[in-house]
């Protein structure tokens, strides 16, 4: 039996992981705690094998008034929680970081790509990584997971915006691009595998398939039973617009090289079509 502590009671990933491992009640026992006050500091963690640290600010912001808060939560809290876990004999600490640490100046991220965050959000996540990686030792394994965009039933961010667009708009640009994404069930299975394997180090999980934004919108509209017309534009028309942030986020290329996402055990539960079916129909655990 693995005793797992999830830090952050309102985390999408944390709550979905809890739901996922409930399929094996004799193998995993999950507890969750809030990090919104200091009560966690007095809690006894000696009974836990794993801490899954998902508490953090996970949304991009350019509001400089929030910069101090981002570092306080994503860097300082992460280090403080890891220190407590190590001090109290927890054997594995999993930190949920993000692809955002690499920034968006590169299109393809491979084993040679160095982190280069665009802003204080990405840098605060990176500083959290740097603050805990030196804690690695024989009896304390540090795991840093950098997923790309996570989507699934109840997720926030760009996917639900695209899904809404797929239903409401009759026309969408047909433009070829590639983006790395990961369905929530693939991610939660990956986390389970990392725990089973007592893994350590950096990990970059993703779906098997890269996602083309236009094809994703087409798939969503198909699942929803909506007709959408895909309008082709000359490449030379859209390419100059990729310098605009919102256009780049939707139609730019942003991928992990598949080599850095390989793992010796399969963690892909759903292919792209299956994941869209589950997401759009609200059927999380099949």
TrEMBL record:
Annotated transmembrane regions: none
Q: Name one Pfam family in it.
A: Epimerase
The organism's taxonomy opens as: Bacteria, Bacillati, Bacillota, Bacilli, Lactobacillales
Sequence ranges assigned to domain NAD-dependent epimerase/dehydratase in this UniProt record: 41-198
Can you say what this protein is called?
A: NAD-dependent epimerase/dehydratase family protein
Checking InterPro entries in the record gives: Epimerase_deHydtase, Lipid_A_modif_metabolic_enz, NAD(P)-bd_dom_sf
SUPFAM superfamilies reported for this sequence: NAD(P)-binding Rossmann-fold domains
């Amino acid at each position: 039996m693995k005793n797992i502590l999830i830090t952050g009671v309102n985390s999408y990933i944390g709550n979905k992981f809890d739901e996922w491992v409930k399929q094996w009640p004799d193998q995993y026992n999950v507890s969750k705690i809030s990090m919104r006050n200091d009560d966690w500091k007095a809690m006894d963690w000696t009974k836990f094998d794993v801490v899954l640290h998902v508490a953090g600010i996970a949304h991009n912001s350019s509001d400089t008034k929030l910069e101090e808060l981002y570092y306080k939560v994503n860097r300082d809290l992460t280090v403080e929680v890891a220190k407590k876990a190590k001090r109290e004999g927890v054997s594995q600490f999993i930190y949920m970081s993000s692809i955002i640490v690499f920034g968006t100046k590169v299109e393809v991220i491979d084993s040679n790509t160095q982190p280069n965050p665009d802003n204080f959000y990405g840098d605060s996540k990176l500083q959290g990584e740097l603050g805990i990686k030196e804690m690695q030792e024989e009896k304390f394994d540090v795991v840093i997971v950098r997923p790309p965009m996570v989507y699934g039933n109840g997720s926030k961010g760009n996917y639900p915006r695209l899904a809404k667009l797929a239903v409401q708009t009759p026309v969408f640009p047909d433009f070829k691009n590639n983006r790395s994404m990961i369905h929530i069930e693939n991610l939660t299975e990956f986390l389970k595998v990392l725990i089973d394997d007592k893994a350590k180090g950096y990990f970059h999980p993703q779906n098997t398939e890269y996602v083309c934004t236009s094809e994703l919108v087409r798939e969503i509209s198909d699942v929803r039973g909506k007709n959408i017309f895909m309008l082709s534009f000359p490449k030379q028309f859209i390419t100059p617009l990729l310098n605009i942030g919102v256009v780049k986020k939707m139609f730019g290329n942003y991928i992990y090289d598949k080599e850095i996402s390989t793992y010796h055990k399969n963690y892909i539960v759903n292919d792209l079509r299956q994941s869209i079916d589950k997401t759009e129909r609200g059927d999380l655990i099949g």
